[in-house]
Design a protein that fits this description.
lipoprotein; about 30% helix; single chain; frizzled binding; extracellular matrix; three-stranded mixed β-sheet; about 350 residues; alpha+beta; disulfide bond; wnt signaling pathway
């Protein structure tokens, strides 16, 4: 299969060759390194280490110097963006491969996911004690019904959103950040990602009581897993709105291209240019094609072989699977299983 290589947006990309220019100029620049590829052995624990991460705008560099622990969390977030994006789009023709056009719906998704991920990772780092400048989230003012009480350690979403947006949006708020349309698109989609994160803050509870009676429940506000947030953003990706940069009143704004009688909604992803179909390899458009991609012959979804292979056909191959089987419970208290092998037929696109 073609190796996956995710192009992160300027908010999470810190390349050796100053790749941030990709989102400042129309002409894309291929970076050689990104935060997601930062060696695990590299620990940002001294201010001079910030110089090892060239490509940051001045406000990002200042944030790095004043909060070194935060940079480790941001690097972790970059890795999560890449991993989560690839899992979320494993069944689609576009599977988070390198995308040279920052104006497409794919770029819109990556910006939204990046903004959500960085704030999500910071919020969780506060809860786990990895960041000394923050702690658990505040106790809600909401009065709970009898048998429920606030407690535990809530995810500090407030701090995550503040610090995440401060780092994520910095490149797009520079005067030299290129096309006004691009800036508006990326800032809007980043905010959509953070709104999806706000919507993912739910009440979680733990039972207390004699013999599991659950007479008392201790509750806190916690974030859903990033995978669920990514799936929500994937739904928004599939229904994203194409927009144009048009004069509205005294200033230019993004308005829906085909239904410009209404403004852009706060919870919808927007994009400026249509994407290729990702069927064939077109390097100039960042499409790696679907040749050799695995597909599902019986699926009714986007991973169906006819859809994934774009009508080119597919080749079958046999694969041996080793699974646990004939498991038996022993008193007390362990389980033993045997290993069973079976041959399954799988398919890859021609």
């Amino acid at each position: 299969n073609t190796p996956l290589q995710l192009k992160l947006p300027a908010c999470l990309v810190i390349p050796i060759n100053v790749i941030i220019s990709q989102h400042i100029k129309q002409k894309p620049v291929i970076g050689q390194s990104a935060l997601s590829h930062t060696p695990a052995s590299l620990h940002i624990n001294q201010t001079q280490h910030c110089k090892l991460l060239p490509g940051m705008v001045s406000s990002q560099a200042q944030l790095c110097r004043s909060n070194l622990e935060l940079m480790q969390t941001i690097i972790q977030a970059a890795r999560e963006v890449k991993k989560t994006c690839q899992k979320t789009f494993a069944d689609m023709r576009w599977n988070c491969s390198f995308n040279r056009n920052p104006r497409t719906r794919e770029a819109a998704f990556v910006y939204a996911l990046s903004a959500a991920t960085i704030s999500h990772t910071i919020a969780r780092a506060c809860t786990s004690g990895d960041l000394r400048l923050c702690s658990c989230g505040p106790i809600p003012a909401q009065i709970l019904e009898p048998g429920y009480r606030w407690g535990g350690c809530a995810d500090n979403l407030h701090y995550g959103l503040i610090m995440g947006s401060k780092f994520s949006d910095a490149p797009m708020k520079m005067k030299r950040a290129g096309s006004h349309a691009n800036k508006l698109m990326h800032l809007h989609n980043a905010e959509v990602g953070r709104q999806a994160l706000r919507d993912a803050l739910v009440m979680k509870c733990k039972c207390h009581g004699v013999s599991g009676s659950c007479s008392i429940r201790t509750c806190w506000k916690g974030l859903q897993d990033l995978r669920e947030i990514a799936m929500d953003l994937k739904t928004k990706y599939l229904s994203a709105t194409k927009v144009v940069h048009r004069l509205v009143g005294t200033r230019k704004q993004l308005v829906p291209k085909d239904i410009d009688i209404r403004p852009v909604r706060e919870n919808e992803l927007v994009y400026l240019q249509s994407s290729p179909d990702f069927c064939s390899r077109i390097d100039k458009q960042g499409s790696v094609g679907t040749q050799d991609r695995q597909c599902n012959k019986t699926s009714l979804g986007s991973d169906n072989c006819d859809l994934m292979c774009c009508g080119r056909g597919y080749n079958p191959y046999m694969e041996k699977l080793v699974e646990r089987c004939h498991c038996k419970y022993h008193w007390c208290c362990y389980v033993t299983c045997k290993k069973c092998e079976r041959i399954v037929e799988k398919y890859v696109c021609k």
